[in-house]
């Protein structure tokens, strides 16, 4: 019998969001006709996350900013590597069946829209996608989970915010109560809409005036991570430098619809109910 666990725990919900974020890089999940219909993604993710989580060692499931003080001092990289070997075969088989046929996308601009600052569409990569590995996918998810679960609280002080172009009343006067993408009431981080790593290039190329460089959006950690997965720093600076522009992307709409349903402290559905999830479960029986 699989060990029981609290499906409303912060750690499990972080892991589930990391898994959903990874799955949305695959066309099978990101390119459905209705970006707001996330029942299948939610059910599929809940099923895979629950099956995987129940097999993981307690030390990995209890990671937090205070993990060292709580006695979880094992090397996290080694812990993740050994945990991958514990993942149930039905999880690996399900991923191979439903995810492997659609190679993942890489951070790139929307192929149907040209940059407002560029006369040419982004070049498409001619490199073949890497061979699919279900253990590799889950190892990546666990690595992201471990990083996010151990990250300190991002309650931001005025002194931590960008110094230039501060609006009247300070940066906290711009802070929303909810994430500007998923609208969840969770801890927020500030996202540089024009990433700092390309500020010099932005000014040199004349993409934006200097007073726009420190424009920020208030995002939860998971939406923040998702944004940086779907586009490079340069693409964010040139084509997706407002929340409205980000929300024009189909994959961001899909993530927003999924994430908006994931309420911290609310127990996710235990049993998948969509036809897709029932098909997965029946084949694994």
TrEMBL record:
Entries under CDD domains matching the protein: HNHc (cd00085)
UniProt cross-references to InterPro entries, sorted A to Z: HNH_nuc
Spans annotated as Disordered: 98-135, 152-172, 266-285
Basic residues bias spans: 116-126
Residue spans of biased composition, Polar residues class: 271-285
Name this protein carries in UniProt: HNH domain-containing protein
Organism of origin: Coniophora puteana (strain RWD-64-598) (Brown rot fungus)
